[in-house]
Amino acid sequence: MKVSIGKRVFDICNFLIMVCLCSTIVLPFIHIFAVSVSDSTYITNMQVGLFPKGFYLKAYEELVVNRVFVRTFVNTVIITIVFSFLSVLICVMASYAFSRKFYGKKTINYFFILTMYFNGGLIPTYLIVSRYLSMYNTYAALIIPGLVSVFYIIVMRTQIEQIPVSLTEAAIIDGANQFQVLFKVIIPTVKPTIAAISMFLILGKWNSWFDVLIYIRDKNKWTLQYYLREIVFMHELAVESDALVKVDQTIVTAQNYKMAAIILVALPVIALYPFVQKYFVKGMLAGSIKG
In terms of pTM, does the model score above 0.85? Predict the structure, then answer.
């Protein structure tokens, strides 16, 4: 089939735009890596571009053995896993409930949707979490407040409503209860959507730091992103007594350390994405085509 000139022009322009957009993401990341492994002399003289000058892994060595970095990494992994699991579980169960008919469904649905557009604000939320729920300076303050996402519940409900009712009715006739229908029929059917939502939740929780800023004072409960924030906002590397870092600055500069920390913080999520990509794409397309 002959391709029209307009279609070719569109494809070329679309390709160039995508290359430019990708470059704004990839090139800074390459520069960050180059700085993280370059010689301190070249970094001080601002001579490092996209390629490393010298090759030193001392900053990475200092990070992976630093007790604060290891502790914040473990904290972040545990908090992210627990938060994502509970949030997805609540999302699926609420979505399944809203996909069925029950008394007062419309009223409760309006109540849920209202929370998408209005909230009490930062100060009332802080008072509720810290004073009335007594979760200040606890891991619960980093997990419980954001567990329910009405937007994801609506997305999941839309997907569940597309499952033929006859499928769930057949399971019930065979003796399955509602929990068995949910976990053995519904969840396997909407697995791509669950994977896509899980990816968004993991990214959001992995990159969060503001909740640590307002709710956590114990440095043993810091998360990785908040620790990275402390490093990036330092003008110079602090000593170990400040619970940050202690390195030989004749070999590793502050820039070395900061860039290495950024790479290590981003690496787990980058490594995870290829394994969930196929589910992620299916989840994004779920519900767009019926048939």
Answer: no
